[in-house]
Design a protein that fits this description.
By secondary structure, the protein is of the alpha+beta class. Helix content is 31%, strand content 18%. The strands form 3 sheets. Strands 6, 7, 8 and 9 form a 4-stranded antiparallel β-sheet that branches. Strands 1-2-5 form a 3-stranded antiparallel β-sheet, sandwiched between helices. The protein has a two-stranded antiparallel ribbon with strand order 3-4.
C-alpha cells in the first residue's frame, strides 16, 4: 500500500479518536455520570448522545458502563446492573463508528475522594504511557512481549491486571476478523507475532492498547484505552486529554 494511503488511514483513525474524546468530554460536561443512575440507564443516555449529536449510532462492540464492584470485570463478562454510588469508580468503554472508521476509547471517573481510588486512576495513564513508550522503543515487539510488559507494570504499581489481553486491532468498519481468533489480532500472551506487520491486503495493522487495573481485595478497578500505534502519549496522570480533572 502506498505511503499516501497509509497516511490517509492513519489520519482517519486519529480523527475518529478525536471525535470520541470530544464525546467523552461532553459526557462529563453534561454531568451524565452521577450517583443514583443505573449502569444501564447511563448506557442508554450515552448512546443517545453519540447517535443524536455525534452521528455515531453504530458501535462496533458492545457499549460498556461499569461501576463499583463491576469495574473488576473484563469486557467479556456481563455482570448484573448496578446503581452508581457516591464513592464509586466508573469506567466507560465505547467503540463508536465515525464515517466508517472505528474508535475505541475508554476512561475511568471517580465520584468520590478516596485516595487509593485516586491513585489507581493516576496509575492508569502512567502505565498506558509506559506501555506505549515501550512499544515505540521496540520495533519488533510481539503481542506476547507487550502483554507481559503491561502486566509487569501493573504489578510494579501494586495492582493486578484485569484482563487476558491488553488490546487489539482497529481500523475501517468492520475491521478484519478471523472467526474464533482471540490471539493473532490481540495483544495476547500467546501472540508471538510482531505487532508491526501487514494485514491480508498489505496494509499496516493499527492497535488499541487497553489498561485494566484491579484491586481484587477491595473489589474495584479502573480502565483506560486508546490508540497505541498513532498519536501522542497521554496528558499528565490524573488529567483528561484537555487538562481537566476526572474526579467528578
Amino acid at each position: 500500500m502506498s505511503e499516501t494511503e497509509e497516511q490517509r488511514r492513519a489520519g482517519a483513525l486519529l480523527e475518529a479518536q478525536a471525535k470520541a474524546s470530544a464525546m467523552f468530554q461532553e459526557i462529563e460536561t453534561l454531568g451524565l455520570i452521577r450517583p443514583g443512575v443505573t449502569e444501564s440507564q447511563l448506557n442508554k443516555e450515552i448512546f443517545r448522545l453519540s447517535r443524536d449529536k455525534y452521528d455515531a449510532g453504530r458501535h462496533w462492540h458492545k457499549r460498556i458502563v461499569r461501576a463499583g464492584a463491576n469495574t473488576i470485570h473484563p469486557y467479556q463478562e456481563d455482570p448484573a446492573d448496578l446503581t452508581l454510588m457516591e464513592d464509586d469508580l466508573v469506567f466507560i468503554d465505547l467503540g463508536p463508528v465515525f464515517a466508517d472508521w472505528e474508535a475505541d476509547f475508554g476512561r475511568t471517573y471517580q465520584l468520590g475522594t478516596d485516595l487509593d481510588k485516586q491513585r489507581i486512576c493516576r496509575d492508569l495513564e502512567t502505565i498506558f504511557a509506559a506501555g506505549k513508550r515501550h512499544f515505540q522503543q521496540h520495533p519488533d515487539i510481539t503481542g506476547h512481549d507487550l502483554y507481559r510488559h503491561v502486566c509487569q507494570l501493573a504489578q510494579d504499581h501494586g495492582w493486578d491486571y484485569g484482563n487476558g489481553h491488553a488490546g487489539h486491532i482497529v481500523g475501517e468498519f468492520p475491521h478484519e476478523r478471523i472467526h474464533g481468533d482471540k490471539v493473532a489480532l490481540y495483544i495476547h500472551p500467546e501472540n508471538d507475532q510482531p505487532l508491526r506487520r501487514l494485514d491480508h491486503s498489505g496494509r499496516s495493522y493499527h492497535w488499541i492498547l487497553e489498561i485494566h487495573l484491579v484491586d481484587k481485595a477491595q473489589r474495584y478497578g479502573a480502565f483506560f484505552e486508546e490508540l497505541l500505534t498513532l498519536g501522542d502519549l497521554p496528558a499528565d496522570p490524573g488529567q483528561s486529554s484537555d487538562g481537566s480533572d476526572r474526579v467528578i
